[in-house]
């Protein structure tokens, strides 16, 4: 998506059952690349293993995290795409 200049990305993690360091690294890399292109990345529905990983590593502070995709879309269209939660 980033190579096509789609720099406004919402990743729905509600059905994600597993995430390891490679997945977190991929999310961080994508977040950085989106910001480099004046875009953003939001995570929706973070829970379970991913939620614990982000909290333990304090990376939850780096990502805008929303309850679900609808909330992410509302915030995006409101222009509230800051990295704070």
From TrEMBL:
Transmembrane segments: none annotated. SUPFAM superfamilies: SpoIIaa-like. It comes from the Bacteria. Pfam families: STAS. Residues 1-76 form the STAS domain. InterPro entries: STAS_dom (IPR002645), STAS_dom_sf (IPR036513). This is STAS domain-containing protein. It comes from Streptosporangium carneum. The lineage of its organism: Bacteria, Bacillati, Actinomycetota, Actinomycetes, Streptosporangiales.
């Amino acid at each position: 998506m980033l190579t096509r200049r789609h720099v406004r990305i919402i990743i729905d993690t509600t059905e994600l059952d597993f995430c390891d360091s490679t997945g977190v690294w991929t999310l961080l890399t994508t977040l950085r690349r989106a910001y480099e292109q004046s875009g953003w990345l939001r995570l929706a529905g973070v829970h379970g293993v991913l939620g614990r990983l982000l909290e333990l590593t304090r990376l939850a502070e780096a990502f805008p995290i929303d309850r679900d995709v609808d909330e992410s879309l509302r915030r995006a269209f409101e222009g509230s795409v800051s990295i704070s939660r």
